[in-house]
Structures are given as structure tokens and as C-alpha cells.
Amino acid sequence: MRLTIAVPQAHIDNANHLAMVLGYSKADGLTYRNPSWQDAHGNLYATASLPVSDGFIVAAESPVVRPEWDTEEVIDMTKAAQAQALVSIWTLDSSETGPKATPDVIKAVLGMGGAEAIWTMGLTEVPLRASERGL
Amino acid sequence: MQLTNQIHLGALLTTRLRSSVAIPTISALFANDAPGVWYDPSDLTTLFQDTAGTTPVTTAGQTVALMLDKSGNDLHATQATAAARPEYQTDGTLHWLEFDGVDDYMVTPTITPGAGLSAQFFAGVNVATPKSNNSPVYQYGDAPFSSTGALLKFATGDGSTDAYRAQVFGSGSNQTARVTAVAPYTSAFSVLYDASAVGADEISLRENGSVTAVGSATDSGLTSFGNSQMWVGSNPSGSANFSGNIYSLVTRFGANLDANEIAQSETYVAGKTGVTL
């Protein structure tokens, strides 16, 4: 099953520390990059979408533990815990009617395709500047 | 992100890849050490779940961290961040990498094309989801269009209109070959950049064996490609991500190809894509 996550711009750094806790290497600290998606109010989000196992969800909801690979302690566990406290996982059988992204929550949608989950969270692409598009 | 020096798979692997090439059409493009890359998701010996190349991809649904380059140039594409890896998929006949349109991409080590070369790009692509942004299937060069620098890319999505397009940029205006198209669609695309041409003939965009657009009339000002990584499935900043499948991808820097070479390359890519020319 696929998990798609929207991280409000203000929480990107913390969320990348949580991504390293749940990931495999320092490279997972680049999971959330540019906040290139926006909600209806113009709030910005960085997103990620990936196939996950049931074990991943359990780990994501369990107390954060420094992974064995992080012998150099690159992960700030305080930041990871702060990010985890903001995570709200929505599934198709959730009672919540719509998993809309908001600036105070790290919203995660489980069981939808990436594009569908992004749309369901009410996010659209931030239009690229002309200098990036080359129109 | 700097991944350039992460992969050291050694001469033995290179030799194996060169000797395992069964399709002379594409391998011939890289004769005489022509710079470029050749990625073939239908060849499972080239796909790995880790960047070190120790865990092979064996079944559909597994993510791809390393895709070996079959050109002989050892320019293997990687994705070190687990969440940003595309998935290998197959229907038993065709094989492809699926990019989720959210964050998936891969990146090559630095390519060194040399001076004054033309370039050819062939790719079998399914565009799954309409994108408002200009989302690259591939992008060579990271120069923004507002400054001098070499850039060549093939992208989907075009502001408010769904389209696909090829773009080249040097020190002048960007030159674009653009075709309106509503996703989903599957085609074998080619982008041909002629270094000797000026103006509209500089860039040619082809779909399923036929020209669909040529460049805008303005000269790109491109005199030579600089050394650069190539991004597959995203622009360098990650602000525009491709949504769809890539069945085959070949990028070559070198002399212009003749009509027969172009036709053979397009036939090869079309076959990998399930498209009949």
C-alpha cells in the first residue's frame, strides 16, 4: 500500500529528521525538499509518496528510536519527535470526511495513489516561475 | 544532492554490460565512446533496490535505487532517498519504471559531452496524470532559463494546458518544440538537437516515428553542452515531478544521426513501449 505525506513548510526540517528515523540512511534526510504544493489558502507543503508495509506504519506511530545506522548521530531526535507529534494518518475507513492538508498537521494518506492522495488533501502544484518554465 | 561519486561498480560490471548488449541498434549509438546513457528497465540485471547494487530488483512493486547504464559509459542512475525511488512494474510483456508524480526521480553522475556536439534523446513514455507544471521526463543541465547555461529537456505539462515539449537553452532565448496532448497517452518520443542548425531547425520533436514539432524560430544561443548530471523524472530542484511510466531511455551526445539510425532507434524504443510504428 502507498503512503503519501504532506509536510507544511514550517515543519520540513523536523519531518526530514523523522524520515531518517524511519529510513535507512542520511540520504532520507532529503525526503522533503521544495515546498512545491499549496492549499487553497496559499500555504506551502513538501510532499513524499512511497510504498510502505504495515510495519512501517507501526514504526511511524511508535516512540522514535535512533536507528542502528546513525552511529554519527546526525538525527536530531527531538526534532524527529516533534514532527511525529504532528502526524495524522488518514485511511479510507477513517471517520474524518476529508484529509485536507493544514499548516499545523503533517497529513499522511494511506491506501491511495500519490496523485489521488495529493488531490484529496486539497493540494495543487505551485506554478513554476517563468524563469523555471522557460515559456 | 551530490550522488556523482557514490557508485563504483568496477570494470568487471562494465565488461559484463557491454558483452550482454544484444541490441546492436542502441549499442552502435555509443560506439567510439560517444557520451550518453542507455537505461533499459526490461533488463532486470540492471535494476537494484539499493544504491550499492547488492540487492537486485526481482518482482513488480519493488523500488529502484540503482539503474545501470548499458551504454558502456558507467553513468548509472541512482536515488539514495528511499521515498523518492520509482517502482519497477511489469505486465509480463512490457517493463517500466513508474514515477508517482509526487517526489520520485533518479539522477545520473556528471556527463561530459565535449564541445560542439549534437544530441539525441529517445524515450518510451506513458504520461499518466495531467500536470500543470513543466515536469521533466528528463532534464540535462540545471541552468535556469534566466541565465546563461546549457539545458536540454523533455517535459510534460505546460501551465494551464496539458502538453509535452522539448526545450533547449543556451545563452539566448529558450527554444521550445511543443505539442498539445491530454494525458493519459503512451508514445515513443525523440528529441533531436542539431548543433549545426540555427533557429527553428535547431530542435526537432518526434512522436512514434514522425516529426510533431520543431523549435521556435529564436536561436537558443547554445554553442556547447557543459558537463552536468541528468535528472530523470524531475527537475533538479524537485519542484516539478513527472507522473507516469518510462519504458526505455536513451540520451546520446555526438554527431547527428542519419534517417536510418533514427528509425532504428525509434523502432527499438517503440518495441519496449508496446507501440507499433
The parts of chain B where pLDDT drops under 50 for at least 5 residues are: 1-22
Q: Sketch the major β-sheet of chain B.
A: 8 strands, antiparallel
Proportion in β-strands of chain A: 15-25%
Helical residues, percent of chain B? 10-25%
User: Between the first and last Cα atoms of chain B, what is the distance in angstroms?
Assistant: 39 Å
Q: Can you count the beta strands of chain B?
A: 17
* Alpha-beta classification of chain B: mainly beta
| Coarse morphology of chain B | globular
Count of discrete alpha- or pi-helical segments spanning 4 or more residues of chain A = 5
Q: What is the gyration radius of chain B calculated from CA atoms?
A: 17 Å
Of all chain pairs, the largest interface belongs to: A-B, 33 and 37 residues
Largest sheet of chain A: 6 strands, mixed
Oligomer: heterodimer
**How many strand segments of chain A?**
6
Radius of gyration of chain A (Å) = 15 Å
Provide the spatial order of strands within the biggest beta sheet of chain A.
4-5-1-3-2-6
Plain-language structure description:
- The complex is a heterodimer of chains A (135) and B (277).
- Chain A has helices at residues 12-22, 54-61, 77-84, 114-120, 130-133; strands at 2-8, 37-38, 44-51, 87-90, 106-110, 124-125.
- Chain A is α+β, with helices and mostly antiparallel strands and 135 residues long.
- In chain A, strands 4-5-1-3-2-6 form a six-stranded mixed sheet, covered by helices on one side.
- In chain A, strand 2 and strand 3 form a beta hairpin.
- In chain A, helix 1 (12-22) packs across helix 3.
- Chain B has 277 residues and is mainly beta.
- Chain B is globular, with a radius of gyration of 17 Å.
